[in-house]
Structures are given as structure tokens and as C-alpha cells.
Specification:
Distance between the termini: 39 Å
Number of helices: 3
Number of domains: 2
Oligomer: single chain
Cofactor: Mg(2+)
InterPro entries: NUDIX_hydrolase-like_dom_sf, NUDIX_hydrolase_CS, NUDIX_hydrolase_dom
Radius of gyration: 19 Å
GO molecular function: hydrolase activity
Protein name: NUDIX hydrolase
Shape: elongated
CATH architecture of the largest domain: Alpha-Beta Complex
Structural class: alpha+beta
Largest sheet: 5 strands, mixed
Keywords: Hydrolase
CATH class of the largest domain: Alpha Beta
Number of strands: 11
Strand content: 35-45%
Length: 180
């Protein structure tokens, strides 16, 4: 199997949030796609943060594109040359005030949508999280912190109370890890 060839590439627009790129591609059979659009986004990090009392630290916030509120795990993107591990610890502290004295456990790195997006999500498990700070939110962030018993998560997922894909997948990845 052969890969596609990029014949031409230009930006439709660039923003601090992400870029939209228009490529002209040649397929392995010689067919040309004149306008293949690629969303360039930064990688992001997220984590299941579990307290000593086996509660998962969740954040609830309004998501404009979906026009609804969502219960999610803490997440964000690295700043500057920040390592993924440092980024998730910072995001957890800023969004929730929680920290941990334990090193985050990498659960996996996964491309979000490799057909049209360049980014991946890097998922961690943080054990023994505890509240040590007040939230340090950006001016555009309005976040409520919720603690949910780990035993309630599957019910909340099956009833749709938690319906954000990266939260659901991170939970199931951590569940497999926590069995050991």
C-alpha cells in the first residue's frame, strides 16, 4: 500500500486555536483530489484524577459548539515547550485546585481524527489527588468542580449524564489499569 502525495498546500486561515489547510493530493492510483482540508490543532492532554477516597475529579463547563454543559475530566493543551506530563499537572491544578504527589501514569496517546485532524490526545491517570489550591481559570473559563465516586461512573456514562468521548475512553482505560 502506498501513501498519498501532497502536490500543493496552502492555508485557508490560521488562528491561535488552530489552522485550516487546503491540500491538493495524489492518490496511489493517480487520482487527484484538488481540495482536501486538514485541521491543524495542537495536541492536548487529559487525565482521570482519582482521590484517595476513590472519587474522580470532574469539571463541568459549557461547550459552545454543542450548546450544552458537559461533565468532563480535566484537559487542556501544553503551553510553549511544556511536556505532556507537566501540562496535565498544570491543567489539573488550574481547573480544579487538585494536585498529587505521585507521578502521572501515561495511559496512551491517540489521534483524535487522523482523516482530517493532525492532533492527538495524551491521556493520564493521576492517583491520590487532593485539593491544595483555588482554581486559576482563564478569563474565558467558567468551570465547576465535581467529585464522583468511581463506582458511579459507568451508570453516569450509560445514562448519558457523561457523554464526552474523551472522558469515557479515559475512564475505561484507567479501569483496566486499576484492576492490576
Amino acid at each position: 500500500m502506498n501513501s498519498w502525495k501532497t502536490l500543493n498546500s496552502s492555508y485557508v486561515f490560521k488562528t491561535p486555536f488552530g489552522n485550516l489547510r487546503k491540500d491538493e493530493c495524489e492518490l496511489p492510483n493517480g487520482q487527484i483530489i484538488k481540495s482536501y482540508y486538514v485541521n491543524e490543532y495542537a495536541d492536548w492532554v487529559n487525565a482521570i484524577a482519582l482521590t484517595k477516597d476513590k472519587e474522580i475529579v470532574l469539571v463541568k463547563q459549557y461547550r459552545y459548539a454543542a450548546q450544552d454543559f458537559f461533565l468532563e475530566i480535566p484537559a487542556g493543551k501544553p503551553e510553549g515547550n511544556e511536556e505532556y506530563e507537566d501540562a496535565i499537572l498544570r491543567e489539573l491544578r488550574e481547573e480544579t485546585g487538585y494536585i498529587s504527589d505521585q507521578k502521572p501514569i501515561l495511559l496512551g496517546e491517540f489521534y483524535v481524527n487522523p482523516a482530517t485532524q493532525t492532533n492527538k490526545v495524551v491521556t493520564f491517570l493521576i492517583l491520590d489527588a487532593y485539593k491544595a489550591y483555588d482554581q486559576e481559570l482563564d478569563p474565558t473559563e467558567f468551570i465547576d468542580v465535581h467529585l464522583v465516586d468511581i463506582k458511579e461512573m459507568e451508570t453516569m456514562i450509560s445514562t448519558g449524564e457523561i457523554n464526552q468521548l474523551f472522558t469515557v475512553s479515559a475512564y475505561y482505560m484507567s479501569k483496566s489499569f486499576l484492576k492490576d
